[in-house]
Design brief:
With about 475 residues, the protein is an all-alpha fold. Helices cover about 70% and strands about 0% of the residues. It contains 19 helices and no strands. α6 packs antiparallel against α9. The longest helix is centred in the last third of the chain and has 41 residues. The two termini are about 40 Å apart.
Length: about 475
């Protein structure tokens, strides 16, 4: 550096910055999180190399994949996340301004910001990798297969975080990656915990490597069955008529008092109660619903408070016929037909089909009930977006299990009719296609950006 630079302005030009970068060690420069010596974010955010921690994570991904410890579902999830990240960056959250001028969400010089990822890396990657290595030595195949999905997904998340923080993507995309991967890893962690606590001792150690949790036997007493038939006719209780939608959707829900429930909510609540009382709902799904209620109230107070003086405008017009038909189609595919499928399974004693379809019906009915709560005057627009995104993300995994169960049925050992076998598979495929499009084609790229735009344009939110 020249003597003039030492005595005068500490700022460097972009050309000088790139020349300096070429002479720096990439390992040390990768950990420089903020501007140094008066540099701006425009210069410090330009990285033309893969940092050391990204290379390590890429190596972990390759080794786990080559070892056969990664399921096709997890590998497909990572591939899909890459494609969907570019899709959202083009259509939902494009680069409006130069992202290099965007300041970070948190101060990169904060010790808490630095210690948080370090602590997470030790707990989430370093210690589980050591656990996997020890499992190879002790022959603990079950423990290895339980821990490997979490390590693979977290390593993939770290790698994708590096991609998202390049100058090609905006801030919402950088938020999307950890949220998307963390939501997926929660379920792998639940599966890991279940398999660890299911180890009965040394004699049964190193059991199956299927990764599918146990399904409880279904006992439906005659009285409960009769009550289910009388009060939950799938045609009358779950079908959404266009007239009722026209009078009770956006206009009635936004102005409804907190203590009253709509007819659609009461039907959904009845389905929730009957399925829970019949033993068709797992403790995990029930805990998920209870957690969603508590978390919805939490973020409504902390993150997205309601402004009493200003009413949030509707994201879409309640008179939109296409939207009403779309909701009606979702109710038929997601509730009416699966409930009818469960009824038929009771008559044909298809316990496997009932246990596979019930979680999806329970969670969708819970979603309908929670959406009614979210559209009351107590919650803001982002909370109304949170409910369908949160539940739809969870139900994707239940539908995957439903699909797996339907296609794993052996016709030779199957007790039901061939018609029911093919109808069950077709219904599972239809739900997978519809709700995947609903989440990845409508809620995230269309509904979410519009809702946040209306919320932040209507209210002046305090900056912390």
């Amino acid at each position: 550096m020249s003597s003039g630079d030492e005595a005068g302005d500490p700022k460097i030009t972009e050309k000088e910055y790139h020349e300096l970068k070429q002479s720096e060690d990439p390992v040390t420069s990768a950990f420089k999180l903020g501007p140094q010596n008066g540099q701006t974010f425009k210069t410090v955010h330009k990285h033309n190399y893969i940092p050391f921690w990204q290379l390590n994570c890429l190596m972990v991904m390759v080794v786990l994949s080559a070892s056969g410890l990664v399921s096709p579902q997890d590998f497909a999830f990572v591939v899909f996340s890459i494609i969907y990240l570019f899709f959202l960056s083009k259509f939902a959250f494009p680069k409006l301004t130069d992202p290099m001028e965007e300041p970070p969400v948190f101060n990169p010089e904060s010790y808490l910001v630095r210690l948080g990822p370090l602590f997470g890396g030790i707990i989430g990657i370093v210690i589980p990798i050591a656990y996997i290595f020890e499992g190879f030595i002790e022959g603990d195949k079950e423990g290895i297969r339980a821990a490997a999905p979490h390590v693979f997904l977290l390593a993939s998340q770290v790698f994708m975080d590096g991609v998202a923080f390049s100058d090609r993507f905006s801030t919402p995309i950088r938020v999307f990656v950890p949220v998307f991967y963390n939501a997926k890893r929660i379920f792998t962690l639940v599966d890991w915990v279940k398999r660890e606590f299911s180890k009965a001792g040394d004699q049964e150690y190193g059991g199956s490597a299927s990764g599918v949790g146990p399904t409880s036997d279904i006992s439906l007493p005659k009285e409960q069955e009769q009550e289910f038939k009388e009060h939950h006719d799938p045609i009358s209780s779950s079908k959404l008529s266009p007239k009722s939608q026209k009078n009770q959707t956006q206009q009635s829900t936004t102005n409804r008092k907190p203590g009253s429930f709509s007819f659609r909510q009461l039907n959904a609540l009845a389905v929730i109660v009957v399925l829970s009382a019949s033993g068709m709902v797992s403790p995990q799904d029930l805990a998920f619903v209870l957690f969603s209620i508590a978390y919805m109230y939490f973020i409504s107070k902390v993150a997205f408070p309601i402004q009493s003086s200003i009413k949030d405008p509707a994201v879409f017009s309640p008179q939109n016929k296409i939207l009403r038909l779309y909701v009606l189609l979702g109710a038929i595919i997601g509730l009416v037909l699966p409930i009818a499928y469960i009824f038929e399974g009771i008559f044909e004693s298809d316990k496997q089909g009932i246990s596979a379809a019930s979680p999806h019906v329970f969670l969708l009915a819970s979603q309908v009930f929670m959406e009614g709560l979210a559209f009351s005057d107590q919650f803001s627009t982002p909370i109304r977006v949170f409910v369908p995104v949160f539940y739809n993300s969870r139900r994707i995994f239940t539908i995957v299990e439903w699909l797996t169960s339907e296609f794993s049925k052996d016709y030779a050992e199957y007790g039901g009719s061939a018609k029911r076998l093919y109808l069950g598979r077709a219904l599972a495929i239809a739900n997978m296609a519809f709700w995947s499009f609903n989440l990845f084609g409508f809620l995230l790229p269309v509904y979410l950006p519009r809702a946040f735009k209306k919320y932040y344009s209507t209210h002046k939110v305090k900056e912390y």
